[in-house]
Write a structure and sequence with these properties.
Layout (H helix, E strand, L loop, with lengths): L6 E4 L4 H10 L3 E3 L13 E5 L6 H5 L6 E5 L8 H6 L3 E3 L6 H17 L1 H9 L18 E5 L3 H10 L5 E5 L9 E2 L3 H7 L2 E4 L13 H7 L4 E4 L8 H9 L5 E4 L18 E3 L8 H19 L11
Parallel strand pairs: 1-2, 1-3, 3-4, 4-5, 6-7, 6-9, 7-8, 9-10, 10-11, 11-12
Helix pairs in contact: 1-10, 4-6, 7-8
């Protein structure tokens, strides 16, 4: 049983997530994590992975012993501070895999087959004047996946029926039937399409730089469903503008919800507003798993999906 008003809900939640919260919890809300903390004896925080939880906020609430975030990523949490103060944390892995993989494949197919441009071509009546340009097929391509965790492995399984070759890189080789490359540059060089499904951490910060993009080459495509911080956006913009790569599909950006304006003026890029997990079904599952973690904490039980920091 979660005590009434013991949980501070930080950040804005979509209506469908708020409905799930209100069914199971009585929380106090703080929309802006930089704002004034409401009065209360808070022992836990409920937030989303797109809301940064500053150390200063936690310092104002010494009674907090648990932070539950809705999302697979937890780069929004000050992990060192949590560890130093014995504060538990949880995320919501697994429940969003289907939605994220679906979007990744949808973006990939749209990028190669230029689906959005084809629709605009028909709507503009240009079809009556000339045929649409030739596009690129997915079959026969080598798909490189950077990050072969839960999402990466689920994505690879979904891609297999498309008659592609799959390769990957990560911290270590796994018992998988795919080619392993020890570095991201080597993977990029071997790939026709490079999909980013890795976590955001110091090791992956700006991992996709000019050298990696050069290795991907003028016939190569980049798809980012991970985090904006994984890509050096200066290098990517140059690569797109100078056709050093064939194109990119981006669901995440360094500065959200205000991506760099240069991306809006390039033809060989497909942009979506960080909607990887944005389905009604997935957001309900994420919210309930986050609350499951809170219930386990208050009942002094092991957290279903604890972040081991």
């Amino acid at each position: 049983m979660i005590p009434v008003n013991s949980v501070l809900q930080v950040g804005q939640f979509p209506e469908i997530m708020q409905m799930e919260i209100d069914k199971r919890l009585s929380t106090i809300q703080l929309l802006d994590p930089q704002g004034i903390v409401p009065e209360g004896n808070f022992t836990a925080i409920l937030t989303r992975s797109n809301t940064q939880i500053p150390k200063a906020l936690l310092e104002k609430m010494p009674g907090v012993r648990m932070v539950a975030t809705c999302g697979v990523g937890y780069d929004n949490l000050p992990l060192e501070h949590l560890k130093a103060h014995g504060i538990k944390a949880s995320n919501t892995p697994g429940v969003l895999n289907d939605a994220v993989c679906e979007l990744a494949i949808g973006m990939l197919l749209s990028l190669l087959r230029r689906i959005t441009e084809a629709q605009a071509f028909v709507k503009s009546a240009d079809w009556s004047k000339s045929p649409f340009t030739m596009t690129t097929t997915l079959a026969g391509k080598c798909i490189g996946i950077a990050g072969m965790g839960r999402i990466g492995q689920d994505l690879a399984k979904r891609l297999e029926p498309f008659k592609v070759k799959i390769a990957y890189t990560g911290p270590s080789q796994k018992a998988l039937p795919y080619d392993f490359f020890p570095t991201i540059r080597e993977l990029a060089q071997a790939s026709d399409v490079l999909i980013l499904a890795c976590p955001a951490n110091p090791e992956t910060d700006k991992m996709i730089n000019a050298e990696v993009l050069d290795a991907l080459g003028p016939q190569g495509y980049l798809v980012n469903i991970a985090r904006g911080s994984v890509v050096d956006e200066d290098a990517l913009l140059v690569a797109l503008q100078q056709n050093k790569i064939a194109g990119a599909a981006l669901d995440v950006f360094e500065n959200e919800p205000n991506p760099r304006i240069e991306f809006l003026n390039i033809d060989n890029v497909l942009l979506t507003p960080h909607i990887g997990s944005a389905t009604s079904e997935t957001r309900q599952l994420m919210t309930n798993l986050a609350i499951d973690n809170l219930e386990a904490f208050y009942n002094q039980q092991p957290l279903p999906t604890e972040v081991k920091n």
